[in-house]
Amino acid sequence: MSLKVAANVEQLTREGAARVLERGGGAARSLDTEALLPRVRASVNKYLLRDRPDASAEVVREFIDALRAEELVLVVACERGDEAAWRELMEGYRATVMSAARAASAGESEAEELAQSVWAELYGLRTRADGAPAGKLAYYSGCGSLGGWLRAVVGQLGVDRHRRTSRLVQTEEATDFDRLVGDDAATTARADGFMPRAAPDPERALAQREATESVQAALARAVAGLDAEDRLLVKLYYLDGLRLKEAGAVLGVHEATASRRLTRIHTEIRRRVEEILVEERGWTREETATRLAEVAARLDTDLSSLLTAEASAGDKRGEVFE
Amino acid sequence: MKSEFDKEIDALLRRATRDTARREDPLRAAVSVEDATAHLDADELSAYAENALPQTTRTRYMAHLADCDRCRRLATSIALASNVALKSDEKTDAHALAPSETAAASGWRARLAALFAPRTLGYALPVLAVCIVAFIAFIALRDSRDGETQLAKHEPANPNAAAQINAPAEVTTNTTTTTATTNTTDGTLNTNTNTAVSSARQTSADAPPESRPDAPAPKPELSGGTADVSTVTVPAAPVAAPTVGQDARGEFRVEFARPSPSVPPATHMEPGALRGRANTTTTTATTGNTQNRSDVTEHRSDDRADAVAAARARNEASRQEMSKRRGDVAGDEVEERGQAMRRERAPDGSRSSPRARRSGSTESSPEDASGTGATRSVGGHRFRRQDGAWVDVRYNEGMSTTNIRRGTEQFRALAADLPELERIASQLNGEVIVVIGNRAYRIR
């Protein structure tokens, strides 16, 4: 960024800070433009100029004017030790903090403890080099709502506390794909159990294992090749177990849009998987389609036993395409 | 073209992501703890979850969220809690259309689709069929009624019906199958006038003001559609007999006459009143108690036209009958009097007084008794008030005049030859000069 552009941005930021001060009632809290300028400047640099260094003056103005002026002024006033602002903050957002603490905690007492720690973090028990309290309020930019920011703070503190207190236990268990192969060999046994199991066909079992691993690898690469938004949708839906409505809320789109997008992702993944298997494994198109169907059928059969404990997955399926 | 859900890929993704999570979560968690600075901070998470970031910045954060389970779950919880408005939904769906256009187009399409939905058509088709049947029935019924009305209008009077009316003992109508017996002795005479619009135009010139459509008339109980004057059925029995009639609009009507003490007696009509009613007839009838409403319900539409014609015939027959009963007044005299009344009617539409109508004369001014210039019409002669005497307007000074005095032998002899002279002398007091033929008579 050239000096001229930087000077221009600085001027735009100063003017924008003055507007934020006016909109947020900063004068009533004995604030001036200089009190808000660092916060506005940090927001512009972090959320706008980092990804769009050549943003026009109009874009900069629009971004600044979209900041939450009242909440930003309230936070800055709190940071400056305004007791009235603190009371207003606690009265206005106590319920929000407690709600977020309950969501991040296992019990009520733990939630209350977490909420208290959040208020302490906000106020800042430590002091900065200049003697001012080093509270978390200094990180609020005004880009999002103060309530959302507080929920995020509570969530992060809750995750950190949980990880400090929990042990990492890694269970050693066979992957589903491995178990599928083993179970496939057992399908020849009689249900009454009186007849001994037939000896599995080693060649057939090996072929199925190789096909499954090939499909798995191709699938992982295909998912990795998706763009960020599609990948996020796949993770939200398949990994996090969100419903389409919830996944759409995280993406900022409607449920129907998320459904259409997921269908398109399926098509794209199939195309990429087939390309990988044909080009790298030397399978024909027909052979690829057949093996994909076989693997999926085995997985689908096995899923029926696995998903009994996860009813939500079945519900989601009906939710999308009913 | 709508893409179909790929169940195979869906099953593969479910298993693959679950397997990946089981194998890699602990590792990623360890990495996250060590590399905490790589995570999105609270401000970034809330800004993303609330859709408050510029698109380029948002895309960068999406890439992180797709790979970072911790941040993604935090962002998910914040987004679901904040319930942000779906800003980018319109961008995704609208393509080239503006949001308002998209909403309008989708609404239009939705309404159209809902209109032709099978479920809607399932209800709409029977309703439509019923409406069509009702419309056809209405058209057919209207045509049939129009035909009956035309038939009733153009059909001549039924002489048989007139003969039945003329018969004093019994009157039978085709309409109600009710036998009505004329009763001239019990005094339950009632007049009912129903003048149809078309016939009123014909008779308004001849009829006195009482028979005009705008004149108040008793409610008819049996009416004919085109009859000049309706016939009357007055039940004398406690149980009312139903009557069926057709009104001026051609609609048939069934009414039940109630025996009421308010029925005016026959004596309220003076013979003089009948003289001024050229087209008004009255019929006194009683009906038997055995008539009931079922008789009326058996009435068929085929008889309606006959009923109208019969009513017309009854009117004509009654008129003739009344003319016969008035032995002291010749039938042509009634017409003559009617013409005289029309001539004597004031240009401004003023009407004759009841007393003048009863006497067959008309007054043009209430101050005729004393004022000069007042006129009266008596016996087909028009008189004006002049110097205290009633002077025939046809009188002039050069006529030869015969002077006579009331009550003398000469007057009685002259009255025997000229009955109108006696009538004029009896109706006009004082000195009267009347012109009969080419001669004037001064009556004192």
Describe the protein's architecture and organization:
The complex is a heterodimer of chains A (322) and B (444). Helices cover 71% and strands 0% of the residues of chain A. Chain A is mainly α and 322 residues long. In chain A, α1 crosses α2, α5 runs antiparallel to α6 (108-123) and α9 packs across α12. The longest helix of chain A has 27 residues, at 255-281. Chain A is elongated. The model of chain A is unreliable at 169-177, 180-196 and 303-318 (pLDDT under 50). Chain B is α+β, with helices and mostly antiparallel strands and 444 residues long. Chain B has helices at 7-34, 42-49, 55-67, 69-82, 88-94, 99-115, 118-154, 159-166, 197-203, 271-275, 293-297, 304-325, 331-344, 354-358, 409-417, 419-427, and strands spanning 171-172, 179-182, 242-246, 252-256, 285-287, 362-363, 375-378, 381-386, 389-392, 401-404, 432-436, 439-443. In chain B, strands 6-7-8-9-11-12-10 form a seven-stranded mixed sheet, sandwiched between helices. In chain B, β1 (171-172) and β2 (179-182) form a beta hairpin. In chain B, α3 packs across α4 (69-82), α8 (159-166) packs across α12 and α15 packs across α16. At the A-B interface, α5, α7, α9, α10 and α11 of A face α1, α2, α3, α4 and α5 of B.
A few lines on this structure:
Chain A is built from 14 helices and no strands.
**Subunit arrangement of the protein:** heterodimer
Distance between the termini of chain A: 53 Å
Portion of residues in beta strands of chain A equals under 5%
What's the overall geometry of chain A?
Answer: elongated
Rg of Cα set of chain A: 28 Å
- The total of helices of chain A stands at 14
Number of strands of chain B: 12
Helix share bin of chain B: 40-55%
Contiguous runs where pLDDT drops below 50 for at least 5 residues of chain B: 24-36, 85-106, 155-302, 327-335, 344-361, 365-370
Q: What number is the mean pLDDT of chain A?
A: 79
The chain pair forming the largest interface, with residue counts per chain, is: A-B, 81 and 69 residues
Largest sheet of chain B: 7 strands, mixed
- Structural class of the secondary structure composition of chain A? mainly alpha
Q: Please state roughly what percent of the residues of chain B sit in beta strands, choosing from under 5%, 5-15%, 15-25%, 25-35%, 35-45% or over 45%.
A: 5-15%
Element order of chain A: H for helix, E for strand: HHHHHHHHHHHHHH
- Give the fraction of residues assigned to helices of chain A: over 70%
* Low-confidence runs of chain A: 169-177, 180-196, 303-318
What is the 3D shape of chain B? Answer: rod-shaped
Report how far apart the termini of chain B are.
Answer: 118 Å
User: What's the total count of β strands of chain A?
Assistant: 0
Summarize model confidence as the mean pLDDT of chain B.
Answer: 59
